[in-house]
Fold this protein.
Amino acid sequence: KKLRFVVFHEPHYIDELAQSAAFDYILYGHTHARDLRKIGNTIILNSGEAGGWLNNKKTVAIIDTVEQKVEFIDL
């Protein structure tokens, strides 16, 4: 199965995009806050902030698309 991703900065229209079922993953930024949730079959992910500028926590995320799991990693 081909996976469908949408990646953008601003967190606008996340719920609407997820409810459309047009994407398997929605990846976004802007808030600098980790977010992992699911609407329908769509996984929504914000890995946080790799630089630690706002909350002093440096994080990234790794997606296992086979198992549909996400792992946050502290840097």
